[in-house]
């Protein structure tokens, strides 16, 4: 057989597998022998499904932007789990030679689910129940996987029950532990090329910006007042800059922090607007705030926004500089040295709960966007807020001036959004010191 005829044959076999997968997904009559099983066919099917995954993401974005191939490891991990499911099921049925049959059957319906996924947002909007739509989609996917296994291995007991249970457990593990990745990056808004930090004028302007920002912090007057320090040290995502701009404006306009606020942000878009979010600048800002504040009355609101890691470090990035990440212990030391007594600290990052224990005391509120072992969500290009930032600053603080009360509202909003999207709950956390609650009441009057 010539190479051309061989290629045409394999593509025809692929089309038959996709057709059989569609019949499987829509619960139409189909038999196991309808699947064309070979190593070549499985590779073609996986490749075809991967291409559809990227194309569907591009379609959702209107094909503005480009594929993000850094998401491919997440897809490969899903393929490995499918092969693991096929291996386990083949073993349970006593059919080790049919591993590829199970793998092909479990993968053949993916094109249907990619197409259906494009319709989910419209369906959720029409019904007004995104959670119901999502759970229905997940239930459908699970039912088709079980049908694929029983179709290829038979319904005999107890093998069929065990195989269905194995597929269910592995599917649940995939849902809980596989990272969600979007294989398409939308472009940033069209802008003129931004000046880089390597530009001599921009480099020297940074020194002026921090000095001007520190000098602009006004000393506290009579009565309790609120000071604001914002710190967003990661230039890799524009969402941190956008969120910080909103939060600083919120505290200046609604909480009276104008003249007593400073924002430190690493971002290519703000090199001539804001001082870089380095730990050195943060230490200087906290020291300046501590010197300006009336220690017994005034309250510091410190907002930290970045990526977090399982070791509870906040990411720092501003090429070509090598910036140090911020740890909870380093921050606790900075605050101690600053002399700031009353503190409200919000950490919006993955694994942010790890900041609570080192920072908590009777005079402090510590709010974390996630538990110490959980991810938070929304750190994506093109967004104006992270999920927690939007819930707490934009929505909850529009309803109350109580930071603890806003946390309770935001926690519910975040949980609802994560459930609607099928995300592992981030479990936002809070610590409220015994003494600061009374001090915040004085501030509110």
- Radius of gyration, rounded? 27 Å
Number of helices: 15
Determine the CATH topology of the largest domain: Rossmann fold
Query: Termini distance?
Result: 86 Å
Shape: elongated
The class by helix and strand makeup works out as alpha/beta
Short overview:
The chain has 445 residues and is of the alpha/beta class. The chain is built from 15 helices and eight strands.
What would you note in describing this structure?
With about 450 residues, this protein is α/β, with parallel strands linked by helices. Helices cover about 55% and strands about 10% of the residues. The chain folds into 2 domains: about 5-185, no CATH class; about 200-445, Rossmann fold, CATH 3.40.50. It has helices spanning about 5-25, 40-60, 70-95, 100-105, 110-125, 130-155, 160-175, 200-215, 240-255, 280-290, 330-340, 355-360, 385-395, 405-420, 435-445; strands at about 65, 185, 225-230, 260-265, 300-305, 340-350, 365-370, 430. α1 (about 5-25) crosses α2 and α9 (about 240-255) packs parallel to α13.
